[in-house]
Amino acid sequence: MPASLSVNLNKVALLRNSRGRDVPRLIDAVDLALASGAHGITLHPRLDQRHVRLTDLPIVTDHLRQHHRGVELNLECEDDPELIDRVVALRPDQCTLVPVEPGEITSDHGWRLPEQADRLRPVLERLRAEGIRTSCFADCEPTAVARFAELGVDRVELYTGPYAWAWGTPRQEHELQRVIATARAATAAGLGLNAGHDLDRHNLEGLRPLEALAEVSIGHALISRALEIGLPAGVRELLDALGWPRP
To answer: What structural domains and CATH numbers belong to the chain?
Structure first.
């Protein structure tokens, strides 16, 4: 079965925030993405709330549970106690822990292990105790990814930025092989497999041979493409690229 598509709505929230009102509405984007065939929704709240606001989280969560039962909600966040408290209160299907550096424009690296293992361990234990599936952002480093299994993480989300940027360049094959080798090492260690960052309808082609890939999270490329062709058509392009049959 092809990987599931989880639509990240942060850039919809960014557009809304630029006007200070509630247009476009996140729940309208949720409905449109799911009606177009997406399998899940991803939100990545940050403490500066420049994208999704903390007040958005219960609104989207309640909307999914009332109108889209069975649709997975993935909350991405750093390991800040306030954010983890909110995740636990909302009980999403999955929490993806992402390292955040002050002043960064976007997430641009995975967790460093074993250096950050003691930092992650209590957070992961708390999430697991609440029945929330855990995932950690991981660089595509085949020799290092198995360390996440030692923390009891359910899945890793491969950070695909370098791979995506290399697509169509002489480094494409090199970066693709790094992704493939890391995916194999993760699977061999018993880890589930997600992927995300700058994936689009073109570079998804290279990931299709990864049979263990469970989910891709795509936001920026989708919303950028939707400005040209609309959100439903943009979602359909991604589903086509993943290998999902037309209804």
So the answer is: 4-242 (3.20.20.70)
